[in-house]
Design brief:
Length: 190
């Protein structure tokens, strides 16, 4: 588990430490590369519960949610906590992450249970607790050590989606937008 106050990025953190979703809604396993102002690479392997009643296929809507969790929620939470000098748990007492909009998504392939994929997100905008990200989802070649693979990754490679030809393009996502809304905005659980 990462030490939040002494880290400059999310690598080394458990996703459950940054995301406040319950365990069945958490669609993120690990952060592999992160530059707080530029973007992130994170992975997830769909579990049987994720494909239940859906032919063993990880739904497109879940791919979008996984990408949003890896990008706008994780990156936005990190930046907001740094700005307010608080932990994600303390931030949860004040704000709720909300998915606002998406520009477009182009699906090129599908994902099945047990197939690891990465979300590569580029931060396009961050201001007033709102973040906009573009990116791609790729299926990871079987047996690849992602931590080692992304150990020397950089912004230039992120911007050009410079990864090996063994990765399979699954989806392209544009203008994925989220915002941390003040908790009093929600009427649920009052």
């Amino acid at each position: 588990m990462g030490d939040y106050f002494n880290n400059d990025n999310l690598v080394g953190f458990e996703p459950g430490q940054m995301l406040l979703h319950g365990p069945t809604k958490l669609l993120l396993d690990e952060f592999h590369w992160h530059d707080p102002q530029k973007g992130i690479v994170a992975s997830y392997t769909p579990k049987s519960r994720d494909v239940h009643d859906h032919f063993g296929v990880f739904r497109g809507v879940d791919q979008i949610e996984a990408f949003a969790q890896a990008t706008i929620v994780s990156c936005g939470t990190f930046l907001e906590c740094k700005k307010l000098s608080c932990t994600p748990e303390q931030l949860k007492d004040r704000f709720v992450p909300a998915f606002i909009s998406i520009g477009s998504v182009n699906f090129h392939n599908y994902l099945a249970v047990g197939e690891t994929f990465i979300s590569m997100g580029q931060i396009k905008f961050y201001k007033f607790r709102q973040m906009v990200s573009d990116g791609r989802i790729y299926r990871v070649p079987a047996g690849l050590n992602l931590t080692e693979y992304f150990s020397d990754f950089n912004e230039s490679r992120l911007n050009s989606y410079d990864i090996g030809n063994d990765f399979s393009l699954i989806a392209e996502l544009f203008d994925v937008t989220g915002r941390a809304l003040k908790k009093e905005t929600f009427t649920i659980n009052k």
